[in-house]
Structures
1.
Amino acid sequence: MAALVVGGGLGAGARYVMDAAIMRGRSGTFPLGILLVNVLGSFLLGLVTGLGPNISPAWVSILGVGVLGGFTTFSTVSTETALLAERGRRDWAWVNLVGTLVLALIAAAAGLVIGELFPR
């Protein structure tokens, strides 16, 4: 349990750093940093899942539930989408919502396929 908590904290910290680095110097309201965080996190979770038989179940949980659970964030996507719509940028709100879902699904599937390529 402690490893999951630590992993979640590490993942959340990595999310903050990646989002801040992507958004630094960018003008505009589109939350590109969080979109890319979620796409990367989905790819990595797919990869961990595909590699599952090659990794101990404890590590699958620590990486998948802890680190990547802390790294990715659906609540921020929801909030950013609502804020975009509230600010009159419904076009960007839809791009953010649909783009996140579609790209994250494609990324997760790609990670899963790549992970399953490794010998068991």
2.
Amino acid sequence: MNYSEALSFTFQDKDWLKKMAIGGLIAFISFYCGLFFIFGFPLVGYYVGVIRNVVKGEEQPLPDWADMSKIFVDGILGGIIFLVYFVVIGGICALLIVSVANQYMPDHEKALLITLISVFTLLALTVFINFGLIQFAATDNFGSAFSLPGIFQLVKSHLGEFLAISMFSLILNGILLLAGLGILSPFTNFWGMVIQAHLFGQCAKAMHPVTTAVQSA
């Protein structure tokens, strides 16, 4: 992964300030006005768009907000991907926790098992949701986000890269949250989201070399 490119590519776009300002404003309204259900879709769509553009090898990976209809549709489809995996994996987690809670065992063992289940569930949600979004963005095929054989193959081949990107993004967004001093954090963390999308785009490009080669030809 080229982390320096992910950190700097934003500023190579001649319209970077406008694009980032619009994205930050949408994130601001979404967060502080409690309208994430509506304004969250464009953010998810932009995330998908950056991944797709990196996979395609676009010179300027930042999508143009003028194509709002495409961004919004990508966001809705991305939201469905998120919801499906959240319901399925979260539901399995809930059943496991209920099962453990009803077992006859010491309380400290129950607490340990429930903690382990919760951590594993959080990791599974992060992996499957992001790999689903990557599959969708890289192939332009909504159904590929739910192709479990394909997802498991990607997890097997690229889990190390995924975890490295996730850890880097977690640390970066924590720093950007502090740098934003609360009120400006939606703007700084939108940039963090774009950086993460670029890194996952690089990962997706390695996952889909045939697709990339065909599109570049």
